[in-house]
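Build the 3D complex.
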Amino acid sequence: MIKTLLDKPVPGTILVVALLGVTAWGVASYPRSIVVFMLFQASIFLLYFARMPRWLKASLTLGTLGVLMPVLGTINAYYMEIAIQVGIFVALALGLNIVVGLAGLLDLGYVAFFAVGAYSWAIFGSPQANLIFGGDFFPLSPWWFFVFLFVGVGVAAGAGILLGLPVLRLHGDYLALVTLGFGEVIRVLANNLDKPINFTNGPKGITPIGRPPIFFAPALRAIGIEPDPNVIYPLYLYALVLLIVGATVLVNRRLEDSHIGRAWEAIREDQTAAQAMGVPLVRMKLLAFACGASFAGAVGVLFSAKQIFINPESFTFMESIGVLAMIILGGMGSIPGAILGATVVTVLNLQVLKGLSLWVNELRNAGVEIFGYNLANLPTQLEPAKYERMVFGLILVLMMIFRPQGILPARRRTRELSEP
Amino acid sequence: MDVDLLIGIFPQVLLDGITLGFMYALIALGYTMVYGVLEFINFAHSEIFILGSFVGAEVLLGLQARGAVEAWSPFLLVLVALLVGMLASGLLAAGVERVAYRPLRNAPRLIPLISAIGVSFFLQDAIRLFESLWRNAFNIVYPPMDVMNERFELTPTIDISVKSLVVIGASLLMLWGLHSLVNRTKIGKAIRAVAEDQAAASLMGINVNRMISLTFLIGGAMGGGAGVLFGVQYSLINPYTGFIPGLKAFTAAVLGGIGNIPGAMLGGLVLGILEAFGASYLSLLTGGAFGAEYKDILAFSILILILIFRPKGLLGEVVRERA
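Done.
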């Protein structure tokens, strides 16, 4: 019923705007309710499905993400955190979508490129680099953050080509395993390169990592606002994430319809035929690896600046699978699919499972009794937030069995995955 | 650099490498049998392996609670744990095949691979959930058995622990059993026929689905047995322990030639020995700059190099490449 309503421009627009308004009001009045916030997020997606003029849709999206979300984020800082995380994962998922979804190269070590980007800023944006070069030149001034956004892109793209060059001869599951091995090698290196020369500070990780400068602080003061770092930084990082996501979506869309994108899809569908038709396999595959990796590199730089602290724990195989689960859930090769998948998985992790954990802990501490069983006796190990692998695993298996093309499949992708 | 030291520890390192190698070989058999029959990498095999380890631990801990650890011979205890662990892992592997792989048998080949990764992740946390409800613990420790830690002195510098002997002996027994099963029995013949050509085998009256289930059962049982031996050898396990040994065993299978049973054994031994040497010699040769931590990189580099330069492995024949 909602679908038919959404297809009609006028009632659909009214419905979506009303829903956005009501849920936003709900979030503002019940800032602690997770369910209300999820309803708000869901209505943002309805906005995507509604049929309305382009300019209206664009301005509504901009208004929701650019104004409504930051306002709600100042009411409850946790929501801002979630929004930033969702943005980071959306950008990662869009990057992996190029490699896996468009070019059909299953990459199980994607998080390695994320790590490369994160460590490149972490080392030079913190006193860590002094240990490598000696002297006292580091950390670099915060302004370098913006330079490093591009350095991260470059370094990660380089790593992508480095990985791509030797493995070009492989495809299918052998390629998947080699990328997995590569991801593990990067993790082991990050874990152990604290000697003989201390590059990564080993398992202890690097901190404090510099944040981007608040260059607009004088302007804020001029209009009479004294910036409070605790409020301004989340908003600022959110804006940066939005910018990066915007850029990735733009690049993704342009690539999809360019001759490069067509070449990737040709390789994905049938490598031999593509080669016979004159698609330069080597160059195109390298390009796919480099493109996907460069997004991860940029996001990595932002991630390390946001966290102030990074260690190898953030770059495990688990994370690669998480991003893979996102694009499979959403629909491989589809941009809205990747965005939806990243949002659903992140929200599932950060809100639903964490919320359940908090709830179980409250019940445990209160010593509530159910059917004569005192919940205070529940094992302390039992915390839903620790079982995200179970959820990912279930998502992957069920999706493969029942809907391998994902929730929002790309139009061309549907055909391939529905026939053997 | 102390050359005498390097030469002096050589036999000991070799011995440790062989013990490790047999463990890898046992796990690798699960990958290789499944690959031989279905041309499919059972990514969840590391969890099937670690489930065996957990079941073995539970059996031993259960017996310990009843006072059997003191009363029984430790070899009998390990045997019981081994058999129960093998049974549990075998059944789990066959069940996973039925639920998560069989419906996807005709799908494009990335799909079952992703489903297998999903199963692997699901099982890790399922084991964790069970252990947290049952024992409120994350790490499980095998009950100590003093006899196992006794060491035979071969020469003043070389000794071998009883548990290493148990691991080597049990592995040899299991490998011999599998070899006879595959090469000397009717069931083995049927499995080989299915591996050769499923359609032709079914025309000859072989129940292909049953043979595939059986392959998973046997491969899983081998993995489970390896899991119990792993627990006896290293004592401490947690639900995520299985991933890295599983990956290395896969490397061993690829190294030997995936789909090839003697190849898996050879690959396991070679990898185990290489790793033992990497772990002991790397830090000696580089003056402590690079330590034993880098042995993992060694295994993964071998995996990457083999896949790139000789995907058919040491003993493998050229298989047709499926993309």
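The mean pLDDT of chain A is 84.
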